[in-house]
């Protein structure tokens, strides 16, 4: 059996053949780009303590044959698919991310999708945004400005009495090399993607990556290369819950797409836990911010609010 573990959640995978190829696929950097920091191992003990069990049968394409969701016991899935791999069979990565998100929600953790986070000037910032809203660019700028990167794509958070804490997240950053000249960004990268984007392992840049950070401010990004300056709008009340509901529940409900179509892994317990956690966040953070503009100007505004750039 293969065991994938992230933030205390253990997912067991039983494979009927080619266990080595599946294991190597899960060790590929593509998995670490989307699944929050995890370990993976092969074990001979099929009685391992696990939170979810995936029975992996080899076959073409990707199909979930069965999903048995138990709010107070182990979830079980049967999938038919080849070993995972970037550009050839990516759906298993996103399926496992979804399984992980549900298992974490059972333990009252949230996976905030489409998010980055970093620590700078004594504050931790959580930034959310749809694809192409400037997240990777701003994180690259932040790292170049000696900020501590915390997560690059999906962020695991825990709601506590004194605030929202970043407890884990993805550690692989992928950025467009265009920004190197445009925003004076130069980071040590470990490879390039098929399309020429730089790949950065933020663990190599940050020896404090496993420390928990309390979130000081939350932003929703709307950035573009063609924009100028920066502008913000304060979000309050119901809209905070609406925004958080999307970014905190997309993975579980199957709104983060994978082929041929994503499942919904929602149940009554998950609905209750997510709803309660979102309400707690909204009560603790009475204001969050939508921010618009050019990525470097937006970053400057976020970390140095006294300098509003027009």
SSE layout and pairing:
Layout: E1 2-6, E2 9-15, H1 19-26, H2 29-34, E3 39-42, E4 52-57, E5 62-68, E6 75-81, H3 91-106, E7 110-112, E8 115-120, E9 123-128, H4 135-144, E10 148-151, E11 155-160, E12 163-169, E13 172-175, H5 178-182, E14 191-192, E15 198-201, E16 213-223, E17 230-235, H6 238-253, H7 268-284, E18 288-293, H8 295-303
Notes on the structure:
- The structure is a single chain.
- With 310 residues, the protein is of the alpha+beta class.
- 28% of the residues lie in helices and 33% in strands.
- The strands form three sheets. Strands 7, 8, 9, 10, 11, 12, 16, 17 and 18 form a nine-stranded mixed sheet that branches. A six-stranded mixed sheet has the order 3-1-2-4-6-5, with helices on one face.
- The protein folds into two domains: 2-107, no CATH class; 111-236 and 287-303, Rossmann fold (3-Layer(aba) Sandwich).
- The protein is globular.
- The protein has eight helices and 18 strands.
- The N and C termini lie far apart (56 Å).
């Amino acid at each position: 059996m293969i065991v994938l573990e992230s933030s205390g959640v253990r997912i067991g995978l039983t494979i009927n053949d080619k266990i080595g190829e599946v294991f190597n696929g899960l060790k590929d950097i593509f998995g670490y780009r989307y699944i929050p920091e995890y370990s993976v191992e092969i074990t001979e003990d099929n009685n391992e303590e696990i939170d979810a069990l995936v029975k992996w049968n080899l076959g073409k394409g990707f199909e979930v044959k069965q999903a048995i969701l138990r709010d107070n016991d182990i979830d079980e899935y049967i999938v038919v698919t080849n070993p995972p791999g970037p550009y050839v069979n990516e759906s298993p990565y996103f399926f496992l991310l979804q399984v992980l998100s549900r298992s974490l929600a059972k333990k009252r953790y949230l996976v905030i999708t489409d998010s980055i986070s970093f620590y700078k000037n004594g504050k931790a910032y959580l930034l959310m945004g749809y694809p192409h809203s400037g997240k990777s660019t701003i994180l690259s700028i932040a790292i170049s400005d000696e900020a501590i990167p915390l997560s690059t794509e999906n962020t695991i958070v825990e709601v506590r009495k004194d605030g929202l804490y970043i407890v884990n997240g993805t550690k692989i950053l992928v950025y467009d090399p265009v920004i190197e000249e445009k925003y004076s960004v130069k980071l040590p990268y470990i490879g390039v993607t098929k399309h020429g984007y730089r790949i950065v392992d933020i663990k190599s840049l940050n020896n404090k990556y496993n420390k928990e950070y309390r979130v000081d401010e939350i932003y929703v990004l709307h950035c573009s290369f063609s924009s100028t300056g920066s502008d913000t709008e304060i979000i309050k009340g119901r809209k905070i819950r609406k925004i958080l509901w999307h970014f905190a529940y997309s993975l579980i409900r199957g709104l983060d797409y994978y082929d041929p179509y994503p499942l919904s892994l929602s149940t009554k317990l998950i609905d209750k836990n997510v709803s309660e956690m979102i309400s707690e966040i909204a009560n603790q953070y009475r204001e969050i911010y939508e921010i618009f503009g050019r990525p470097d100007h937006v970053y400057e505004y976020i970390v140095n609010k006294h300098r509003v750039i027009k």
